Structures are given as C-alpha cells and as structure tokens.
Amino acid sequence: MLKGKKAVIFDLDGTLIDSLGIWSAVDELLATSLGRPDLAADPVTLARLREDALVRHALEPNPYVGFCADLAAFCGSPLPGEEVHRERYHISRALLKSDVRLKPGAAAFVKTLSERGFKLAVATTTKRANIDIYETVNPHIAPELAFSSVFDAILTRENVSRIKPDPEVYHLALETLGVRADEALVFEDSLPGLRAAHAAGIQTVVVRDPWSEADRARLLEEADAHVDSLCDAPEICGFTRS
C-alpha cells in the first residue's frame, strides 16, 4: 500500500495509543459525580452519547464543552458545560500520566517508517498537552516513542477549528508535510476519522479497536484496508518481517 507514497499520517487515540478506554473511565467518573452512577455502569451508552455529541457540536469552538453540557443535561445536573469540562480535564490528568499505553506494534512500526525515509505526522483533535504528558511523564510511552523527535508534524486540537469527521486536520497534515493526497496513507481506528481522511482524498487503513466495534461493519466496508493491530501493518505495507 505504500507504493508511490511519501508520507504516513496517524490518528492518535485508538490508533497509536490505547487511550479510549481511559476516556470512558473519565466519563464514567464524571457521570457518577453528576449523579448518574447507573450511566457510569453502562460504558457503551456513555460512549455513544459522547460520539453523538461530538458530531452534533463539531462546528463549535470546543465540541467537548458541548458534550459536557449534554452529559450534564442527560444526568439532570444544572452545571454549565464549561464547569463540567474543567472537571473532566482534572479527572483525566492522573489517568493520562499512568494508565495510557501504546497500541501493540505502534512504536516499532513508526520507527520502521522513519528509518525508511517516510514523512510522518500525527493528525488528532486531542489537545497538545496530552501528547506532552505521553512523551514526558507517562512511563509506558515516553521510553518507547518520542513523538517530537520521530514525527515531522504533530497536529492537534489547537491547530484546527473543526474536529473529525471534518477533513480539516488531514488537509493541514498534507499541507504541512508538503505532499499530495495520493502520496499519503492514513492509519485510523474510528468511523469519523476514516471519513475525515477519505474526505481529504487519502487512502486509509483501519486499525481495529474495541471501542469502535459498534461501527465495525461500516469500517470494514469503507476502509481501503484493515489490520487487527499495528503488528500487522508492516506486512500490508510490503515490509519483510524481521
């Protein structure tokens, strides 16, 4: 799949790092603090609430504030979205520092691509502060993958006005790397991410993640290729296993 390609662009959460379960844990704690422990015990419903809210508020300055406002209303809380969002951020800090890990095969695959001369980028709509935590204080990630050293571009929520499935972050990645859409390959895990990359005209490989299982059929139908993990990525890219 890398024939004629000059660049590889990665989503972050659920693709390079195993973090989506952490965010579900954060939102479970948040729902409990808002008076709905029953919702905290139903992570599938909570995840769907989050995904639907992010799409609904995608054009707002911070869609996560919109999600927090919706969650508060769903829980019957009078708290404004901004206040709930601040609490969500506070809850997340400790978990991001200690519990998030790289997805299997991620570090080795990224290093292989770098050694072979591909331009590399992260295209995510998470905050840059989260990546700073991963590469400086997270003991599971920092020793394995130095984001700032390996990637030619790291594009985050601060760099765009709209989140996925809007293709803005992928258009920006192409521009930053100086490549055309047909010269790049994307690795994504979610349906909004896949559709964002395709809207930018980029071929996309879907990496299986348990938090996207509800969309599995559509992901398989729409993706250009798919792998169960990044351990399998070298093979579909035509690299010889060592």
TrEMBL record:
<dbReference type="InterPro" id="IPR006439">
    <property type="entry name" value="HAD-SF_hydro_IA"/>
</dbReference>
<keyword id="KW-0378">Hydrolase</keyword>
<dbReference type="InterPro" id="IPR036412">
    <property type="entry name" value="HAD-like_sf"/>
</dbReference>
<dbReference type="GO" id="GO:0016791">
    <property type="term" value="F:phosphatase activity"/>
</dbReference>
<dbReference type="InterPro" id="IPR023198">
    <property type="entry name" value="PGP-like_dom2"/>
</dbReference>
<dbReference type="Pfam" id="PF00702">
    <property type="entry name" value="Hydrolase"/>
</dbReference>
<protein>
    <submittedName>
        <fullName>HAD hydrolase, family IA</fullName>
    </submittedName>
</protein>
<dbReference type="InterPro" id="IPR023214">
    <property type="entry name" value="HAD_sf"/>
</dbReference>
